[in-house]
Amino acid sequence: MLFKLATLALVGSALAQRPANTSICDYYTTALLKENTAANQATLLTLVVNTAVIGNYTKPNVGISVPGILAAGMYNGTMVNLLPYFDGGLASSNNGTAAVAMNFLDDGGAVPLMMNMPANGTTYLLTHLYQYFGVLLGCSMQGPSATSAFPSYQGEASQYSVHKYMDLSAAEVGYFITQVGLSAASFGVATADVTAVGMALASLFDYSCAPPTTVIPAQGPQLQAICIDSTCPVSPNATCAAYAPAMEPFVANVSLAMGEGVNATSSMMSGSATATATTSPSITPASGAGKSVAGGVMAAAAGLVALVL
Question: For the whole model, what pTM was predicted?
Answer without folding.
Answer: 0.81
